[in-house]
Each structure stands twice: as structure tokens, then as C-alpha cells.
Design brief:
Helices cover 71% and strands 0% of the residues. By secondary structure, the chain is mainly alpha-helical. The radius of gyration is 20 Å and the shape is globular.
């Protein structure tokens, strides 16, 4: 049900339905997979190599989980969950409703031949624009979430409200939009690729299994979503790492116990420093937990979005 090419029997949903389904999708996915996000961010912010080196705080996924559980308790795996939920629900609602509106406009205004021949490009373009809109609307929650996840003990911020107040008073309003440029650069291809790959894999699935399931099954939605999330994340991962490094600028005191800290003046300077000090592989720190997270979360996003729309369609029929 994602995007255009809907059959008449499916009818049309209201924009509020898309927003609701997107918000539910984001909320459920964040609750399930927040620990992977915590591990990924810890890896991304670590200057030292992620290996068996003595000077490295974390040596791998298993070691990171063990350290966090031992030093900070199991609740630390859900650090930043409140702003993360604000981020996920806001982002999910804005992204899906924007994508649906844009694809509906494409379906209504573009020639049928172009819709058929440039299907993947249309999905990519609409997904990219939807990602930009959702990112701009939800970035303050992303910055707050990163700060809360990144801090060690004792905590600099007590909760999301204390973090927001402290950041505003000490760093100003624009501190909530730190990392906006690399985030938009990252989100544009990532969101576009996710939707384009998802629709492409749906078509391939229907072709291979000789089916035209509308709406798709739960397994089909989760599998195609996981595959699309994996490919998209591998393409844009370095930009995600750079964004995280920039978002914690001005926050060095709370990071010192995790290892070395650096000051970056912008996207290019950050990338240059990483390449010089950490090598090309430094741009891919935390890749595997990130790819695992992308596969799980993207599959979950599309699954719960589709299933929520099915439920809403059922309710609408009951009302009617």
C-alpha cells in the first residue's frame, strides 16, 4: 500500500491515516531496536579503533553490550528513549504522509508512460523529498537523543527537558540543528533509496512468486523493507557517522571517559580529520550494528506501516 499504483478496491486513505500509520510504525520500531542504536552511536563517537586495543573503550558489539550492562545497567541500552520516541514518531508521521502525498500527485499529474518507465526514479525522488521534510521537522529530537545516549556517568543531563533547557541557555537555539547539513545530505539518498528499493523489491517479489498481493503479506513487507534498509544504509553510512560526530560538539566533558575527543568545524573538516587520524575504515565505525539496525528497523517500519493501514482500512469499512 506504500506509494502509488493502488487498486480501486483499496480506496484512498486520508492524510491523517498516513500520519497515524507512520507514527505507530516509528514508535513500535524505536521501542524494539533502541539498544542497537545506542551501540551504533557509541561506536561512531569512539575515536580509537574498534578492536582489541587496550586503549579502546569498546572492542566489538558483544563487548560493548557487556560493558554497558556492567557499568551502567540494562536501562542504559534504552538511554535517550524519550527523545528517540519523539524523533521516531515525528519522523515516521512526516515521512510517510509526505511520501504518500507526493506519489499521489505524481500518479495524478504525470503521464502513464512516464509513471511506468520512471517508476523507480519517481519513488526515489518522492522518498528523498519526504526524508528532507521529516528530518527538518524532527532534527532537534535527534540532537537531544544523541546527547543523552552519548553521555556517561555522572550524567550531564538529567532528562530531555533538562537537556533542552541547558542546550538553549548555554549554546543557543541553533544547537538543536547541529549536523543539519550532513543530515540532509545523508537523508536525501537514504530515504530515497529506501522507498525506491522497497517498491523495486516488492515488484521483484511479485514477479518471482507469481503473485500480485495487494496489500502485501507481513513477511513480504518485512523482508523487502529489511533488504531496502540494508542497501540504503551501506551507501550513505559515512555521512551518518560524520553527523553524529558534529552533533556532540560542545559536549566534550561528558565524552572524556569514553576516550579521545576532537573539535570539528564542519562536515569537510570532520571527514578530513577522520581520514587522516583513523583512515578510510574510520568512516565505517559501527557499520555492522548500523546495518543490522537498518535491516531490522526498515523492515519493521514498512511492516507496521502496512499493517496499521490495513487495520485503519478495516475500521473505515466497519464505520461505513
Amino acid at each position: 500500500m506504500v506509494g502509488f499504483e493502488r487498486t480501486s478496491s483499496q480506496g484512498r486513505f486520508h492524510e491523517l491515516d498516513y500520519m497515524t500509520a507512520g507514527a505507530v510504525s516509528g514508535f513500535v520500531t524505536r521501542t524494539l531496536f533502541q539498544p542497537l542504536d545506542v551501540i551504533k552511536i557509541r561506536f561512531q563517537l569512539q575515536i580509537e579503533p574498534i578492536d582489541g586495543s587496550r586503549k579502546s573503550k569498546y572492542h566489538g558489539m558483544a563487548h560493548a553490550f557487556k560493558c554497558i550492562l556492567k557499568e551502567e545497567g540494562i536501562q542504559a541500552l534504552w538511554k535517550g528513549i524519550v527523545p528517540a520516541q519523539f524523533l521516531s514518531t515525528t519522523y515516521g508521521a512526516l515521512q510517510f504522509v509526505t511520501f504518500e502525498i507526493l506519489t499521489q500527485q505524481a500518479e495524478s499529474n504525470l503521464p502513464e508512460k512516464l509513471q511506468h518507465d520512471a517508476k523507480t526514479l519517481i519513488n526515489f525522488s518522492c522518498g528523498a523529498l519526504a526524508g528532507c521534510v521529516a528530518t527538518t521537522g524532527s532534527l532537534p529530537f535527534d540532537v537531544l537523543r544523541t546527547r543523552l545516549v552519548a553521555q556517561g556517568e555522572p550524567k550531564t543531563y538529567r532528562n530531555i527537558f533538562h537537556a533542552a533547557k541547558t542546550m538553549y541557555c548555554t549554546e543557543g537555539f541553533f544547537s538543536f540543528y547541529k549536523g543539519l547539513a550532513p543530515t540532509l545530505v545523508q537523508i536525501t539518498p537514504n530515504a530515497g533509496a529506501q522507498f525506491a528499493f522497497y517498491k523495486l523489491f516488492q515488484s521483484l517479489w511479485n514477479y518471482m512468486f507469481k503473485t500480485d498481493a495487494k496489500p502485501p503479506s507481513m513477511f513480504q513487507s518485512s523482508f523487502c523493507g529489511a533488504a531496502s534498509g540494508t542497501l540504503a544504509k551501506m551507501f550513505i553510512y559515512p555521512l551518518d557517522l560524520i553527523k553524529k560526530r558534529i552533533q556532540v560538539q560542545g559536549f566534550e566533558a561528558a565524552r572524556i571517559q569514553f576516550g579521545a575527543v576532537r573539535r570539528y568545524t564542519g562536515l569537510i573538516h570532520c571527514a578530513t580529520c577522520i581520514l587522516k587520524e583513523e583512515g578510510v575504515l574510520g568512516l565505517y565505525k559501527g557499520l555492522w550494528p548500523s546495518v543490522l539496525k537498518a535491516a531490522c528497523t526498515t523492515g519493521s517500519h514498512f511492516l507496521y506501516y502496512e499493517e496499521t493501514l490495513k487495520f485503519l482500512a478495516y475500521l473505515h469499512r466497519e464505520v461505513l
